[in-house]
């Protein structure tokens, strides 16, 4: 993205192919320049009345939107499977997670409040959380309903109006989601626009936008942050990750390989917090690599791995793998583009990796498990920390001292010990460095969507 808006947002069509077989899902028109500006203007007109709506009524409306989403869950799951290749059952899980998130914010929004302050006993001092205004939400394709529900729900329930642009890789899902939710909300509170980069660029450049909330690539997130310098918009962004997994010498290598496979191959590696690079202690490296390769073979032979979102993504994943092999990585499993239709890519295990290889230095976003053998936990921890991203990391260790050191030394927003996808409900994290900034989910997202006003009230002096 660039910081300057184009003179006009070109009128184009988004044609989506099913990544499972290459068939056409459908075509969606990209919003024109006039339609984008009109959507923001509509949100601005509706902002004052929605901000003045009682929090309890906003929560009630969001609860109704959640119930409508639940009624259409199967429809959206099947559409998501066609657009992104994510299996219907997993897609349904994402939709229902979105339903749960909307219900959560419907409950939390009305009790989101300020604080009393201690001042003079003859005065009242307190803070008020006020909506920021118009929120532009730019959401991804890899879990399109769940992620969008979080940003839209938190924005709406705190009194903001929203213009939502879903990813151009799943415009049908995004448009239908917008229709379903908007029918439960007052006119103008939620507007959906579809389109590619030009539409996103225009939205981020408009001065009448108060919040830019983005989940997606680091390059796009950084462009959004630069655009906000000119407009003054508040930015919330969860961007790319290159999450490390450190395997200590005192853990069961077969169990550790199962954790690594889960982290690297779930959703074909297309998860923001996927395991992207692995550092395994030399003492357990051989059985770990054997077990990890077997985990990959099992997925490849069983046909359980979903395709990547499209052929463009597959080309990028294979480019990274091929480049790393050319620089000395050893293929233990996978690494070959399969014949036939669709955008499938095999679960791939690479050994002999080094920090300079592309698969270790950049987010791959595919089912690739690159492994570097290290001589100590200290070395693994040091290499895990030496990265420009800061989303999440995992350590597998039986030593509490090593776990505590990981907590202290890894510069990430989320650290998981002995479970690659562990975490309690209601958690929230602040990504760091190239991975973004601000709370992108959880109760703290309500704070991001509001701004604090400090109030001081006291009696005037009496006359005479």
UniProtKB/TrEMBL annotation:
Keywords: Oxidoreductase. Signal peptide: none annotated. Coiled coil: none annotated. Pfam families: Aldedh. SUPFAM superfamilies: ALDH-like (SSF53720). Residues 12-455 form the Aldehyde dehydrogenase domain. InterPro entries: Ald_DH/histidinol_DH (IPR016161), Ald_DH_C (IPR016163), Ald_DH_CS_CYS (IPR016160), Ald_DH_N (IPR016162), Aldehyde_DH_dom (IPR015590). Gene3D superfamilies: Aldehyde Dehydrogenase, Chain A, domain 1, Aldehyde Dehydrogenase, Chain A, domain 2. It comes from the Bacteria. This is Aldehyde dehydrogenase family protein. It comes from Kocuria aegyptia.
């Amino acid at each position: 993205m660039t910081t300057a808006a184009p003179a006009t947002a070109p009128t184009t069509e988004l044609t989506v192919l099913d990544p499972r077989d290459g068939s056409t899902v459908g075509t969606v028109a990209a919003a024109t320049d006039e339609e984008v500006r009109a959507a923001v203007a509509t949100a601005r007109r509706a902002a004052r009345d929605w901000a003045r709506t009682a929090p309890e009524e906003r929560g009630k409306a969001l609860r109704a939107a959640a119930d409508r989403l639940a009624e259409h869950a199967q429809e959206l799951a099947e559409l998501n499977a066609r657009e992104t290749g994510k299996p219907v059952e997993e897609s349904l899980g994402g939709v229902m997670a979105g339903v749960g998130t909307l219900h959560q914010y419907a409950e939390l929004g009305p009790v989101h409040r300020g604080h009393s302050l201690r001042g003079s006993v003859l005065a009242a001092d307190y803070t008020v959380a006020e909506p920021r205004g118009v929120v532009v939400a730019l959401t991804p394709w890899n879990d399109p309903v769940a992620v969008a529900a979080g940003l839209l729900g938190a924005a709406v329930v705190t009194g903001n109006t929203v213009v939502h642009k879903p990813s151009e890789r799943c415009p049908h899902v995004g448009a239908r989601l917008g229709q379903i939710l908007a029918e439960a909300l007052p006119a103008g509170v939620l507007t959906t626009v579809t389109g590619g980069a030009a539409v996103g660029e225009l939205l981020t450049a408009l001065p009448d936008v108060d919040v830019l909330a983005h989940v997606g690539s680091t390059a796009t997130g950084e462009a959004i942050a630069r655009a906000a310098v000119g407009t003054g918009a508040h930015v919330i962004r969860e961007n790319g990750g290159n999450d490390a997994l450190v395997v200590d010498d005192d853990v069961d290598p077969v169990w550790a390989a199962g954790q690594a496979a889960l982290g690297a191959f779930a959703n074909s590696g297309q998860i923001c917090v996927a395991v992207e690079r692995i550092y395994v202690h030399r003492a357990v490296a051989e059985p770990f690599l054997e077990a990890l390769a077997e985990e990959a073979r099992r997925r490849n032979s069983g046909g359980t791995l979903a395709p990547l979102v499209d052929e463009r993504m597959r080309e990028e994943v294979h480019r990274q793998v091929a480049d790393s092999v050319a620089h000395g990585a050893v293929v233990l499993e996978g690494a070959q583009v399969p014949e036939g239709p669709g955008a499938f890519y095999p679960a791939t295990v690479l050994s002999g990796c080094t920090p300079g290889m592309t698969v270790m230095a950049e987010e791959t976003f595919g089912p690739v498990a690159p492994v570097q053998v290290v001589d100590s936990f200290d070395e693994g921890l040091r290499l895990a920390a030496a990265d420009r991203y800061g989303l999440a990391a995992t350590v597998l260790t039986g030593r509490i001292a090593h776990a505590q050191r990981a907590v202290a030394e890894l510069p990430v927003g989320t650290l998981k010990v002995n479970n690659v996808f562990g975490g309690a409900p209601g958690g929230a994290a602040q990504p760091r460095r190239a991975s973004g900034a601000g709370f992108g989910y959880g109760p703290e997202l309500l704070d991001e969507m509001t701004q604090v006003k400090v109030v001081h009230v006291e009696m005037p002096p009496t006359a005479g």
